[in-house]
Write a structure and sequence with these properties.
redox-active center, 7-stranded mixed beta sheet, globular, two-stranded antiparallel ribbon, 7 helices, alpha+beta, Glutaredoxin
Amino acid sequence: MAASSEAASKALRAGARAPLFALRDTHGQGVSLDRLLDAGPVILHFFRGAWCSFGERGLADLAGAYDQFKDLGASAMAIAPPSKPAAPVLPLPMPELIDENLKVSRAFGLAYELPLTLRARYEELGYQPPVTRTANSFLVPIPATYLIDHEGVVALAYVDVDYRNGFDVDSLVKALRALQARRLSVPRSPKPGTSSPR
């Protein structure tokens, strides 16, 4: 727990600019964060993969609120390392992005070295650690949920090393509503080359 807690203390927090990335979803389609932000706020839900039953439950909760996110002008993406589910899983309303070698998780500060004593158990559950240049490395993702505003700044960050804890979806919806209200209250600047109406 100490290793994961230390890693989580360095994870991306509210007010920071989110690192841009491009990943492929489970259907092989490319998805980039900058394109998503062009359309509005983005929710990124990092989970441990289909091998983790707790992560699957949290994902189901988030999927249940997907229509609310859309109504508030946001897109939502699930992000996980490659994994094979132990049992058939229901299709998600949101895209699931494959974080090869935990590239994006590491950019957000959401990966840590699993202690040697736990590695065999994780492998039994079906987890496959990413390939890195460090010998004997065994990186594991930290569950987290981020709300990123249309300017690419983290508006809400929930990072919890205890994978048994679920994220409060209602808090995410409230934060989205606040973002929407703030954006509507700011007058839009005229586009370059146009004049303001008199």
